[in-house]
Design goal:
- By secondary structure, this protein is an alpha/beta fold.
- The protein is 39% helix and 19% strand.
- The chain is built from 11 helices and 12 strands.
- 34% of the residues are buried.
- Mean pLDDT is 88; it is low at 2-22 and 289-298.
Length: 298
């Protein structure tokens, strides 16, 4: 009988220990890639893991869990309702977001996505001047994703922008000359061109690059305070010890080189939606020091 009680006590101890361990494991849910060929989220997932590893000794174990594929509207609804545990999504900053949202105070991509080169339709490619002006470019139509911050910025700067939800459909729409331009971050363009190279007449323009400040942050519901604190601490540690920069370069350097922006006409556009940011995000921005000429704003 004595051994029976000892065995029961041991089982209860192990069970309680297991429950206690589970309680201290932080679950972070991230937005899943659209499909197995979608590489847009590789860097952000790797950065989340890096930040969590950097803080393991402080906060304990963690789990990174994919959310399942969803569009922007659905992702924002999940963030609002907290139907996924500690759900984080990378979004461009917008001073008009609702007050239930909060973010990790670090620009995830170091601002690189603000350098925009474009897929161009065969029709526009034929008509565009070798050295285009901004006035000329404003005659062309743009396509962007529904709800993307780029839509608001481009419209503010006087461009004609159309929104469609389907990610893959945007590449076909430009190749078929339904729209003239589909502009992408220079960290994205190479992977996307390779992914969709089977689309006949898909062309990357070589003449110009837009730049507008576009800090993107890990957003979540403001109630997820511990998760925000941990990711902030982990990301800053990774930035200061160089591991974040190493990851960033590994993921993006090839696409940056492919974009060859130092040989393009540079147009700087305004982003009026950055008010109310309460820290100096720009000090973390990548700066292309090869731009040694005065940019063309005309």
């Amino acid at each position: 009988m004595k051994w029976f009680y000892i065995l029961i006590s041991l089982c209860l101890y192990l069970t309680q220990s297991s429950i206690s361990q589970a309680d201290t494991t932080l679950t972070i849910t991230y937005r899943s890639p659209q499909n197995q060929d979608d590489k847009r989220k590789q860097y952000q997932i790797a950065l989340l893991k890096l930040a969590l590893e950097k803080t393991r000794n402080d906060y304990g174990d963690y789990k990174l869990v994919p959310s399942g594929s969803m569009n922007n509207d659905r992702a924002l609804e999940v963030l609002k309702t907290q139907s996924r545990k500690n759900f984080f999504i990378r979004l461009s900053y917008d001073s008009e977001y609702p007050d239930y949202m909060d973010y990790v105070h670090f620009p995830v991509d170091l601002g690189i996505v603000g350098y925009r080169v474009c897929f161009i339709s065969p029709k526009a490619n034929h008509h565009l001047s070798p050295k285009p002006t901004l006035k000329e470019l404003k005659q062309f139509t743009h396509v962007q994703g529904r709800g993307w911050m780029d839509v608001k910025i481009l419209r503010y700067n006087g461009f004609n922008v159309h929104e469609i939800n389907n990610y893959t459909g945007k590449f076909y729409a430009v190749a078929l000359s339904r729209f003239d331009l589909f502009c992408r971050g220079i960290n994205e363009i190479q992977n996307e061109f390779n992914q969709f190279s089977h689309i006949e007449k898909l062309i990357v323009d070589k003449r110009f690059v837009f730049f507008y400040p576009l800090p993107r942050f890990f957003y979540t519901n403001k109630n997820n305070k511990q998760a925000i604190e941990r990711l902030t601490k982990g990301i800053m540690r990774a930035y200061h010890d160089g591991s974040l920069i190493s990851l960033w370069e590994k993921m993006y350097s090839d696409s940056i080189s492919y974009s060859d922006i130092s040989h393009r006409q540079l147009f700087i556009l305004k982003n009026p939606y950055l008010k109310d940011i309460d820290f100096d995000y720009s000090k973390f921005f990548y700066i292309n020091r090869e731009f040694d000429k005065e940019p063309d704003h005309k």
